[in-house]
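assembly run, all chains below
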Amino acid sequence: MSEIEKRAPSPKQSRRPMPEQDPKRRARNFEEVALGYSEEDALAEAARCLSCRKPTCQAGCPVEVPIPEFVALVKEGKFAEASQKIKENNALPAVCGRVCPQEKQCENGCVLGKRFEPLAIGRLERFVADYEREQAGRQLTPRVSRLASNKKVAVVGSGPGGLTCASDLARLGYAVTLFEALHEPGGVLVYGIPEFRLPKDIVKSEVEYIKGLGVEIRTDAVIGHLFGVKELMSDHGYDAVFIASGAGFPMFMNIPGENLNGVYSANEFLTRANLMKAYLFPEYDTPIARGKNVAVVGGGNVAIDSARVAMRLGAEHVYLVYRRSLEELPARAEEVHHAGDEGIEFKLLNNPIEILGDDSGRVSGLSCITMELGEPDASGRRRPFEVVGSEFVLDVDTVIMAIGTRANPLIGNATPGLNLTDRGYIAAAEATGQTSLPGVFAGGDIVTGSATVIAAMGAGKRAAKSIDAYLQQPRP
Amino acid sequence: MFSILKKEQLADGIYQYTVEAPDIARAAQAGQFVILRLDERGERIPLTIADFDAAAGTVDIVFQVVGKTTEELAACYDAGGALLDLAGPLGRPSHIPVGKNVIVIGGGVGIAPVYPIARAMRDAGNHVIGIIGCRTKDLMIMEDKLASVCDKFITTTDDGTWGRCALVTEPLKETLEKRQDIDLVVAIGPGPMMKFCADTTRPFGVKTVVSLNCIMVDGTGMCGACRIEVAGETKFACADGPEFDGHAVNFDQLAMRLRGYVEQERLALDHYHGGEACQCQK
Ligand SMILES: Cc1cc2nc3c(=O)[nH]c(=O)nc-3n(C[C@H](O)[C@H](O)[C@H](O)COP(=O)(O)OP(=O)(O)OC[C@H]3O[C@@H](n4cnc5c(N)ncnc54)[C@H](O)[C@@H]3O)c2cc1C
Ligand SMILES: Cc1cc2nc3c(=O)[nH]c(=O)nc-3n(C[C@H](O)[C@H](O)[C@H](O)COP(=O)(O)OP(=O)(O)OC[C@H]3O[C@@H](n4cnc5c(N)ncnc54)[C@H](O)[C@@H]3O)c2cc1C
Ligand code: FES
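ok done. output:
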């Protein structure tokens, strides 16, 4: 490194920091943590882009957003155009700019990142999407490339997988109906990811955009109960079905005391808080336990989100109880960092063995045992084992289990002939989403197990392509 | 939006609504329930489908006013109005045997959900004995409707103001003593009543099905709010039930879990009474 570089980091070296709410303040409110770039920030950050002749960022994106092109537009100050450019491949840029693990994807491939900090592609994506929404107003540019549209497609589940598939098919000219079990479209984007990471108004406006493309959304429609998958085709005139129902079936540890009042699955806790807006109770009707001392069991992003919500509901102490060490913690480093700043206490190398209750059936403590790490297991992570005699009780009144989810068996059970994997996920070809039933496709978490927003969107895109191919085939 | 076509007060604090929901009406089977939401700020509450008519495209719900949502529904939502959300049919349908001898028991507002089950039982060629009971005459509902689908029919009140002065468990016990050919008992009502029915049938070894009213959020198996111990295992009432083997349900746990939000429920009601927040459609 030259002397100059050492003394004052050139703009090339470090990225524009993301303006954030102060940790003390934000730990008690539900407003967005990351405030977003200003125009000046965006221009300065985009100027860092090397405009590589052979860019390697785009390949890191599961939906191949045209990153070099959109960043070039940002450089020219054409923010709305940059957003439009992204939307050619990604209908949800304001969402992805906020929640994608860019450090593992596009930014991981950024050439600048080899020597300095990679370009803040996610922050730029967020900026242009927000800019377009707020300043330029929505310009609908449905690209109806071909009138295919006497054909109808049903999409089951309105998470990122379903929304993406629906919007791609609508653009191709198909009549698309999106069936959603809950009263609000968006999947995990509305019921799981908290307001302070992804404001629900943003999801709403992305959904409005997709409606603007002509997609009909039917909420309160639980497929498998209201209509069967096959009946959608045989009785309701759909020519193909795409299933993107997510992996929303919560797991518990099967330890004593799990049914005490004050024990939640992360799904329930987050659904009450986000979808039902229980943090605004009694203005909103749905209640939630506002624990004084809260233990969250698990170490993924879902656990971190739950812990940060519990803090915002007014807890004095929020503990993250995880049985391995910080190194193995699967949550994004950025979120772990945010959580730490907000006062979440990490109880690493501890495993719950029992939830204790009082006479009225409320949680009064979490009995844990200390763990040590041994040899690496099949996943390459060091296997934790219990330290004999190390039991202790954590003084808590609320316990949130964030130890993962599985496939909801509803659609599988209700659809004879639809092959499942031995873990209960829908068996579907990765490249096409084709299932064992003709005309039925699947993708997203219901096929892969819990993954990411962008992976589900990628699956939705691939399925839209193969549904189009399937429907264009001449058939007897 | 789901239009309310008809509203009827059946008894003190108990109402029946007929709601336009053609797709639910077509798919519904006895034993299933719906989840409704009144307005943007509303809670999702589960109610059993008390009747459904595929040809007319309607479902009926019968509910008792017990808290904020049910009170607001009864006070502010009339025929001509509409419910914001209605999701269903949810849960597993009742298992309907063929050609058996069956006792169906309804207690309190639990009389309503028993009707479609009794009707389906009768349609499948079962011999149906109906027993319904409530605290007092003013709370009795749907007597004629239920009687019309039962081969034998007994009414009780706790205070003797109508029908026989007894708890439903008394005629239940007598019938089981008199007849050894009863194959199945279905009991729906408040937790304690279902528990006592199960206790009554246990010595006779007669299979007893109960329908659990656990607190729910989504009603599709996504959250686990509705979990309940059955035969030592945790089940999700909305997805695995709502009907379970009454001899295996942990009723104490059910009662405990139903008390999970008493303070908030009181607060919600106070807030509703005190504030101008009523989103009244009137
Ligand atoms: C708390 C939390 C935080 C997360 N944070 C991140 C993050 O920061 N970044 C990231 O990339 N990923 C994150 N994820 C993971 C990501 O959200 C998921 O991988 C992604 O949403 C999967 O999309 P999907 O379309 O497959 O399903 P989902 O988003 O799960 O949507 C499925 C939809 O289908 C509906 N449905 C289910 N069954 C039926 C039925 N029978 N009929 C009709 N509709 C049905 C559901 O109600 C739901 O709306 C997070 C997940 C959680 C739970
Ligand atoms: C599958 C099922 C079927 C049901 N069928 C009927 C029916 O046909 N008729 C009827 O009158 N009632 C029925 N219930 C009970 C009904 O859902 C509750 O009475 C209603 O939710 C009360 O709401 P509230 O806001 O008026 O009262 P709250 O003040 O919220 O609560 C009053 C009581 O209702 C119970 N309760 C509260 N919230 C819920 C919830 N989300 N889910 C379930 N119970 C809750 C509480 O234990 C409390 O004791 C059923 C419940 C279930 C789970
Ligand atoms: S109500 Fe959510 S799983 Fe049953």
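Residues 453-472 of chain A form the longest helix (20 residues).

Confidence is low (pLDDT under 50) at residues 1-8 of chain A.

not gonna interpret more than that til we talk
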